[in-house]
Design goal:
Blueprint: E1 3-8, H1 16-25, E2 28-34, H2 38-50, E3 54-58, H3 62-65, H4 70-82, E4 87-90, H5 101-108
Parallel strand pairs: 1-2, 2-3, 3-4
């Protein structure tokens, strides 16, 4: 059986080479790496470039979006659009219903 990891945060691992090798041994063929903010979106693109198994998903985690001003959000959306040929999906979108739902709704109306 072939496996696909549909939601991974690879930036949390110091031993990424080892993790990728172990995943391959366990028949994981594709890993969808999710960016959650400006910094991790760039890391995810680098991972996808370095590892053929890794596919990039860029986005802004809803709670992280609350820390940004409109200009920063628009800048990141522009960055994602500029890199659309390097990604497989937009990730980390929607609402985190546990935290500040009303404020998040106003941001996603942008």
């Amino acid at each position: 059986m072939t496996f696909i990891d549909i939601h991974a945060h690879l930036e949390f691992f110091d031993d990424l080479n080892i993790r990728i090798k172990k995943a391959k041994k366990r028949n994981v063929k594709i890993i969808l790496a999710n960016g959650i903010d400006v910094e991790t979106n760039r890391k995810v693109l680098a991972f996808a470039k370095e590892y053929p198994e890794v596919q990039a998903c860029l986005g802004i985690y809803p709670v992280n979006a609350l820390k940004l001003i409109k200009k920063e959000i628009n800048s990141e959306i522009k960055f994602i659009k500029e890199n659309k040929d390097k990604i497989i999906a937009i990730g980390e979108v929607g609402l985190d219903l546990e935290k500040l739902k009303k404020k998040q709704l106003s941001y996603w109306k942008l």
